[in-house]
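debug: dumping io for the single-chain case to check the tokenizer round-trip. Nothing else runs in this session.
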Amino acid sequence: MDLKALEKSLSPWLRVSTWYSKHPEDEQRFHHALHATFAEHGYSIAFEEFFEAMRNVIVERYPGHELYRATDIERYARRAEIIGYYLFDVQLPVMQQ
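debug: decoded output
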């Protein structure tokens, strides 16, 4: 997996400072970013890849935040992996944007 490409796919969501807030607009950005990610890379993206890509974006955009947002990064990386597994299991075609 090309982590830089994954980081780029997730950036539209993570570039907003409230990405972790569970606000409906942040959740919508999360799902849009996942849609773009899965359309470009497919569904087989491991938790570790999501975690590292998310952490890299956070380190770049908000230095120091990765330390106290580690739980949030882990939670969203786990959600992203689970969503990818589900979509793979139900064999939904990857839809282009």
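debug: round-trip ok. The chain has a mean pLDDT of 91.
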